[in-house]
Amino acid sequence: MAKKVLIVSNSSDLHADLVVPILIGKGCTPFRLDLDRFPRDYELCQRFRQGEWGGDLRHLPSDQRVGMGEIGAVWARKPAEYAFRSADLSAQESAYAKQETEQALFGLLMALDCFWIGHPSAVRAAMWKGEQLKRAMALGFRVPATIVSNAPARVRAFRQGVPGDIVFKSMSTPALGADEVAEALRQTGGIGTTIVSEEMMDNIDAVGELACQFQEYIPKQYELRVTIIGEQLFAAKIHSQDDARTMVDVRDMAAEIRYEATTLPAEIERRCRAFVAGYGLQFGALDLIVTPDGEHVFLENNPAGQFLYIEQLIPEFKLLETLADTLLRGAA
User: Fold this and answer.
1) pLDDT by residue (tens digit) across 260-289?
2) CA gap 38, 59 in Å, rounded
3) CA angle 241, 245, 249 (to 5 degrees)
4) Where are the alpha helices (DSSP H) in 181-279?
5) CA atoms within 13 A on the CB side of 13
6) 291 burial class (0-12, 13-18, 19+ CB within 10 angstroms)?
7) 80 — phi, psi (to 5°)?
């Protein structure tokens, strides 16, 4: 019997929405677990008895079921807040419900011995920006001169030691936590990579509150988004310097800059593949700078990064289909 694919994400994930029909078209009906509707819309059971283990999931609205022994591949896409059947849980009840749900669900999923795209332990190991920079240097990449510190004097000394500009770049999210609180409680929508002005340096004592990351600003010829899915590598050349809005931070999608397919030098491709494989991952989305002198500079890797926009901008990159095919090969 052919093994099945389990997709773990949330109901707002367009990536999962588009991969599901591709899998169905290839003869595989996946089981989708939307965490923002779990456990409200699902039943879970895990059993241990006389040396045997088993478990299953059931989607209540559709009555779709999957046994753990049927699963050959898991795509862990995006997290979400859990949903419970009772809407009036107290603060303590809600906190406990979340903790127990986490134990029940991941106690089941982490027991699976199958192919994963985005195994939670591997993704967690790969998400730390400081460790990424160290690993990239070990592979031969140049990385920007960087300091992460909550010591204002050390940040000032770093600034004085860099010949050009420096930038502030959030290590966790450019939303600065706005996505974690109710809209009425948000103080700012966030901040992207930002060149540090003299006015900001005058207020640098504020970093004493928490450690912040500062890097030398690297002049760019263009940027690269390198997406690795299984054995396939897709390199997108991003003409970020064509628009003032993307010169410092390429993430302003309102700017209609050019994206095009490109080929990496063999050594750079080797380093990118080795970087992702070193974590035991089947997926990675790496951001690189190419300087005016043609040097490749590593910025970061996104172990569960977005990739649909790359396919939309470069239609010849069949990323969704490659993802589906990789899951099916892994399940087989």
Assistant:
1) 999 999 999 999 999 999 999 999 999 999
2) 9
3) 75
4) 198-202, 266-277
5) 25
6) middle
7) -165, 165
In whole angstroms, how far apart are CA 61 and each of 29, 30, 42, 84, 263?
16, 16, 8, 15, 46
What does the DSSP 8-state code read for residue 247?
S
Report helix angle 266-277 to 129-138, nearest 10.
130
CATH of 145-216, one of 3.40.50, 1.20.58, 3.30.460, 3.30.1490: 3.30.1490
Report the alpha-carbon distance of residue 127 to residue 176 in Å, rounded: 17
- Tell which CATH architecture fits domain 4-118: 3-Layer(aba) Sandwich (3.40)
Half-sphere exposure in the Cβ direction for 44 (13 Å, CA): 18
Of 225, 243, 210, nearest to 290 by C-alpha is 225
Crossing angle of helices 14-25 and 319-331, in 10° steps, is 60
To which residue do tokens 């990675």 refer? Answer: 284
Condensed to tens digits (0 to 9), the pLDDT of residues 24-53 reads: 999 999 999 999 999 999 999 999 998 999
| 8/119 Cα distance (integer angstroms) | 11
Report residue 181 CA to chain centroid gap.
20
In one letter, which amino acid is 278?
A: G
